[in-house]
């Protein structure tokens, strides 16, 4: 049987978006700063859904971190969430950037990360959700048929693809989780 999932972007949804807020990129575990209510929101979602991280992480292509360092940052994030009683069931990330490493199939707004998740878990996209802070997140979620939720944290949708419209707009991940849980009733 296909599984329901909530796909989450990382920066600007779960944790502070260093690039948006400071112009710098996340390169060290000491920079990871959870947004208010994020771990509790994930904990709520864990009761009903797979919770899967899907993130563009161009710091690898830019030469700011190695692939191993990027994986370490994501493992640290998972460990810190687990300490708070929340769980990411999987992490899929794109280490590419078209300006530095050429085109790929996994960088959102392409759907490659979602297809990787489907291969690993068997996802029912029509009963799944995508929560992101960029229109590229929303575009990717729409391509696979997820219900899309734009949060107003991080970029809050103020990026390149203005014509992309989410299904819902909420303040933050906590409000997104509440909306998702309420949709089950």
What does this structure look like?
By secondary structure, the protein is of the alpha/beta class. It has a single domain, classed as HAD superfamily/HAD-like (Rossmann fold). Helices cover 36% and strands 15% of the residues. A six-stranded parallel β-sheet has the order 3-2-1-4-5-6, with helices on both faces. Helix 6 links the parallel strand 4 (129-132) and strand 5. The longest helix is centred in the middle third of the chain and has 17 residues, at 67-83. It is globular, with a radius of gyration of 15 Å. The model has no long low-confidence stretch (mean pLDDT 94).
Number of strands: 6
For this structure, the CATH topology is Rossmann fold
Number of helices: 7
Order of helices and strands: EHHEHEHHEHEEH
Radius of gyration: 15 Å
Helix content: 25-40%
Strand content: 15-25%
Distance between the amino and carboxyl termini = 21 Å
Task: Assign the CATH architecture.
Answer: 3-Layer(aba) Sandwich
Q: Would you identify the regions where 5 or more consecutive residues have pLDDT less than 50?
A: none
Nutshell version of this structure?
It contains seven helices and six strands. It has 185 residues and is an alpha/beta fold.
Offer a few descriptive terms.
185 residues, alpha/beta, Rossmann fold, six-stranded parallel beta sheet, 7 helices, 36% helix
Topology:
Layout (H helix, E strand, L loop, with lengths): L4 E4 L9 H5 L15 H9 L3 E7 L10 H17 L6 E5 L3 H4 L10 H10 L7 E4 L2 H10 L2 E5 L16 E3 L2 H11 L2
Parallel strand pairs: 1-2, 1-4, 2-3, 4-5, 5-6
Helix pairs in contact: 2-7
């Amino acid at each position: 049987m296909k599984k329901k999932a909530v796909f989450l972007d990382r920066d600007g949804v779960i944790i502070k978006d260093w690039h948006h807020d400071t112009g710098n990129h996340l390169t060290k575990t000491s920079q990871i700063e959870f947004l208010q209510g994020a771990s509790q929101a994930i904990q709520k979602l864990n009761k009903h859904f797979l919770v899967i991280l899907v993130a563009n992480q161009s710091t690898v292509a830019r030469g700011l971190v190695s692939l191993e360092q990027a994986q370490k940052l994501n493992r640290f994030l998972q460990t810190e969430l687990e300490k708070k009683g929340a769980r990411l069931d999987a992490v899929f990330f794109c280490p590419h950037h078209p300006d530095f490493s050429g085109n790929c199939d996994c960088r959102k707004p392409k759907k490659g990360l979602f297809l990787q998740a489907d291969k690993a878990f068997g996802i029912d996209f029509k009963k799944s959700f995508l929560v992101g802070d960029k229109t590229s997140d929303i575009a990717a979620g729409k391509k696979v048929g997820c219900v899309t939720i734009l949060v107003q944290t991080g970029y809050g949708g103020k990026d390149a693809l203005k014509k992309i419209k989410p299904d819902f707009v909420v303040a933050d991940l906590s409000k997104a989780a509440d909306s998702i849980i309420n949709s089950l009733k």
